[in-house]
Amino acid sequence: MAVRLCDVASLLRSGSWAAEPWTGVIAAMETQLSNGPTCNNTSNGPSTISNNCSSPVESGSIEDSKTNLIVNYLPQNMTQEELKSLFGSIGEIESCKLVRDKITGNVKTWIRQSLGYGFVNYVDPKDAEKAINTLNGLRLQTKTIKVSYARPSSASIRDANLYVSGLPKTMTQKELEQLFSQYGRIITSRILVDQVTGVSRGVGFIRFDRRIEAEEAIKGLNCQKPPGATEPITVKFANNPSQKTSQALLSQLYQSPNRRYPGPLAQQAQRFRLDNLLNMAYGVKSRFSPMAIDGVTSLAGINIPGHAGTGWCIFVYNLAPDADESILWQMFGPFGAVTNVKVIRDFNTSKCKGFGFVTMTNYDEAAVAIASLNGYRLGDRVLQVSFKTNKTHKA
DNA sequence: TCCCATT
Questions:
Q1: Sheet-wide strand order for A352-360
Q2: SS3 A16
Q3: Among the listed residues A288, A308, A302, A278, the one whose alpha carbon sits nearest the alpha carbon of residue A368
Q4: Residue A90 CB neighbour total at 10 angstroms
Q5: What is the torsional sign of CA A134, A280, A271, A333?
Q6: What's the pLDDT score for residue A22?
Q7: Cα torsion A134, A35, A77, A95: sign
Q8: Tens digit of pLDDT for each residue in A114-134?
Q9: Which pLDDT score, from 0 to 100, does residue A196 have?
Q10: A45 touches strand B (CB under 7 A)
Q11: How far is CA A176 from CA A189, A191, A199, A221, A241, in A?
C-alpha cells in the first residue's frame, strides 16, 4: 500500500496541533535549533542588563522591557505585515516594526530594503514570553529567526559590532567568545565559513552589548596574537549595514542567488522536517528508509494530491467574504516560495466564496505551512488548510 | 576578506 502524503494534512488536522497553530512548525524545528545562526544568547533578558543610564526615552520605556521583542534573521523578503501576522498569532500586538534601509539619495525611494530584523511589542508580557518560547528558532525560508527581549534603546548600544580577521582557521566560535568576553558582554558572535567546505574563513563578528566595550576590545586585541596563534588578528568596527545604500544592497542581492546551495546542515534540517511530518502522521522514521534519501524526489511513485506540476496546490477553506489575495500571501509567504494565490469569488457579488488556493514550489515548505496554518484563527474564523485533493465532490 | 541587533 502506497503512503499517501495528502493524509498527513488531515491527520495533522486532528489532535493537539490544531489547537496551537504554530506548534507544527516548532515541532519541526526541534532538531534544527543547534544548526542555526548564533543563538546562544537568546536568554539575554533585561534582567542581566545594567540599566544605569535611566533614560527611558526614544521608543523604549521600562514597561516595554517585558513586552518588547527584537526579531533577528528575518528573511529578506518578509514584510512588516507578515511579521505582524506571524507574531499576532501569539497574542495582541501593541506595535510592530520591520527595520528598513532608510537611505534613498539618487536611487528609487520605493526601495526600502529590509535590514533583516524588527521589533514586536506585545500588550501582555506573557505573550512576549510565549513568543520567545515558541517562535525563537523558527525556520523561515533560508533563515532561522531569533526572538529575544529588546534591550532598552540607547545610543550606547549602537555601533558595537566588531569585524575580526586573521583568525586561526582552527578557532571555534566558543574560543572566539572566550577571547573577547574579557572586554564585556557579548550579544552575538559568528565565524564565517566557506559555503562549500564548511571550513572557517578566518573572519568573524563580535557584537558587544555596548560600544565602549567594543572600543576596549579593539585596544586590547587588535594586532595581538590569540593564545597559541602564530599570526596577529585584526579587530575593527564592522561596516554598518544601515549605512549601505539601497544600490549596494541591490547589487548584493543580485549577486547572491535567492536560494543558496544548501550545505550539509541545511539538507539535514530539511530531511528532519519531512521526517517529523511523516513520523507524526505514521510513526515512521523516514530518514532510515530509502525513500527519504533526497526528500521529495525520492517520493516518486507515491500518490500525492496537490501536486500540480508547477508546484503544490493548497486548499484554504473558511475565508471571510471580504478576504483577498493579500491575506494569502501574508499567511503563506513566510513558509517559503509561493508562486500563486487565488481567492475564489462569486461572479456577481465579487465576494469570496469562502475558499481559495495557494501554490507553493517546494513540498516540505508547503507541508510545514499546512501543518502550521491549519486551524489558524483568522478573525473569527478557524481555517482549514490542506493539500488540494483531486476529488470534485461538494463539501 | 563584512555579518544583517536598537526603532
A1: A338-345, A352-360, A312-317, A384-387
A2: helix
A3: A278
A4: 22
A5: negative
A6: 33
A7: positive
A8: 899 999 999 999 999 999 998
A9: 87
A10: no
A11: 8, 8, 15, 11, 22
* pLDDT at A226 (0 to 100): 94
Which nucleotides of strand B are protein-proximal, with an atom < 7 A from a CB? 1-7
Q: Which cell is A7 given? A: 493524509
Yes or no: say if A314 and A278 are a contact pair by the CB < 8 Å rule. Answer: no
CA of A188 to C1' of B6 (A): 14
- A236 within 8 A of A163, measured Cβ to Cβ: yes
Contact A26, A382 (CB under 8 A): no
* A190 CA from B3 C1′ (Å): 8
Going by their DSSP bridges, the two strands A93-100 and A114-122 should be labelled as antiparallel
For chain A, domains (ranges, CATH) are 6-27+264-387 (3.30.70.330), 36-153+245-255 (3.30.70.330), 160-239 (3.30.70.330)
A184 Cβ nearer than 7 Å to chain B strand? no
Q: What pLDDT is recorded for position A355?
A: 96
Q: Is the CB of A56 under 7 A from strand B?
A: no
Q: What is d(CA A341, CA A330) in angstroms, rounded to the nearest whole number?
A: 10
- Asked if A121 CB < 7 A from strand B, the reply is yes
pLDDT at A244: 52
pLDDT at A185: 96
Low-confidence spans in chain A with pLDDT less than 50? 1-58, 104-109, 245-304, 393-395
Strand B close to A234 by CB, under 7 A: yes
Distances (CA, A) of A69 to A49, A122, A124, A153, A177: 15, 8, 12, 12, 24
A97 forms beta bridges with: A119
* Angle separating helix axes A325-332 and A80-88, nearest 10 degrees: 70
Is the CB of A64 less than 7 A from some atom of nucleic acid strand B?
yes
| Residue A152 contacts residue A46 (beta carbons within 8 Å) | yes
Report the SS3 class of residue A207.
strand
Q: Does the CB of A245 fall within 7 Å of any strand B atom? A: no
